[in-house]
Amino acid sequence: MLKAVWLKFDHDWGWNLARLLAYTCIMGLFSVLGLELVLLSLFLRITSDITEQSAVHGIVRLLPDRVTGAAVLSFADAIEHAPFILVLLGLPVTLWYGTRFFVVIESCLCVIFRRQQRPFLRQNLVALLMLLFFAATLPTIMLSATFTPIVSLGLGHATIPHSRLANEPMISALAMLVSLTLNFTILLALYSEVTPGGVAFRHTWPGALLGAVLAQGYILIFPLYAREVLQPQHFGTVAGFVFVVLVFFYAYAFFVICGAELASWMAGYRAAPHSITDTLSKAHHAVFPLAASPSKRIVRHVAPEESPVEATSFVLPSEEPLDLVVD
User: Fold this and answer.
1) What is the pLDDT of residue 195?
2) What is the signed CA dihedral for 194, 249, 131, 207, rounded to 10 degrees?
3) Three-state SS string across the chain, please?
4) Helices 49-62 and 120-146: crossing angle, nearest 10°?
5) How confident is the model over 263-292, as pLDDT tens digits?
6) Which pTM was predicted?
7) Predicted confidence band at 225 (pLDDT cuts at 50, 70, 90)?
8) Burial class (CB in 10 A: 0-12, 13-18, 19+), 79
9) What pLDDT, on the 0 to 100 scale, is given for residue 246?
10) What is the pLDDT of residues 228-277, one digit of tens each?
């Protein structure tokens, strides 16, 4: 079974789908963070500036990465000093870029589950609903990540917690359970609802569980992996941060695609005989057989009725026959 699922993953261009999804996942995450900061700013400006600053700094302290916190804090400061009308106009922009992640993942799921894409309006409506759902769960995900410890894997380093509360075994276990549950719920919603036509729960839950377990395990070891293997400090602060973010989200997107492939297999979909490009090429040649030999083109010379020259033909490099009249 594993060999068959892996063959389907390879023929579905799983590696390329993961790369595509990783880029849009980065855009989607920062768009959701921007959306929440914009909404928070609009709400708190009605109350008082002191309350707004306290709330923003409280959110930044919950972020597990210092560089990410600095980036979000810089964005929050820009929103704070921006005119109210510009903040209001930024709301549809963040909504648009945030929904692109779910539009792209629908395209990936259409390849994996052999479905047709939804019409434009329905596609963006589903993406908007998923964006709101993800925005509602993101604070809990960040909070659980803050309280989740980082394993050392026996490399001679002590466990490095994100927070002092992560030293408490009960809090750490609860944070891991909450994070795993939320990841499972999000992936289950993606596979079941974002896929056009829907997929039954009995088919999607094994894939959602696989993706959630892989993602949770990766979250535990990634900070240590980044420090011991990636070593982003050699690239500088900004370049190292970008490098680490790209590696992390590519791995996360890879787990999402793997879970989708397992769910597709459970739903009865098997690997195509050929990869996507080979399948398209064979289908094109079946419809346009002359295109199978693009180096040859038959050109007919047709003489008019009053001319004694008979019709002749010869071959030139092209795709379709041409009719030429000899006067």
Assistant:
1) 94
2) 30
3) CHHHHHHHHHHCCHHHHHHHHHHHHHHHHHHHHHHHHHHHHHHHHHHCHHHHHHHHHHHHHHCCCHHHHHHHHHHHHHHHHCCHHHHHHHHHHHHHHHHHHHHHHHHHHHHHHCCCCCCHHHHHHHHHHHHHHHHHHHHHHHHHHHCCCCCCCCCCCCCCCCCHHHHCHHHHHHHHHHHHHHHHHHHHHHHHHHCCCCCCHHHHHHHHHHHHHHHHHHHHHHHHHHHHHHCHHHHCHHHHHHHHHHHHHHHHHHHHHHHHHHHHHHCCCCCCCCCHHHHHHHHHHHHCHHHHCCCCEEEEEECCCCCCCCCEEEEECCCCCEEEECC
4) 80
5) 999 999 988 887 777 777 877 777 776 554
6) 0.71
7) low
8) buried
9) 81
10) 655 655 555 556 667 777 888 899 999 999 999 999 999 999 888 877 77
**Pairing status of strand 297-302 against strand 322-325:** parallel
Q: Tokens standing for 34? A: 């921007």
The one-letter amino acid at 253:
A
Work out the angle at residue 71's Cα, subtended by the Cα atoms of residues 68 and 73, and round it to the nearest 5 degrees: 105
Angle at 168 between CA 165 and CA 173, to 5 degrees: 100
Residue 59 CA neighbour count, 13 Å, CB half: 22
**pLDDT, average across residues 54-63:** 60
Q: Average pLDDT of the chain? A: 74
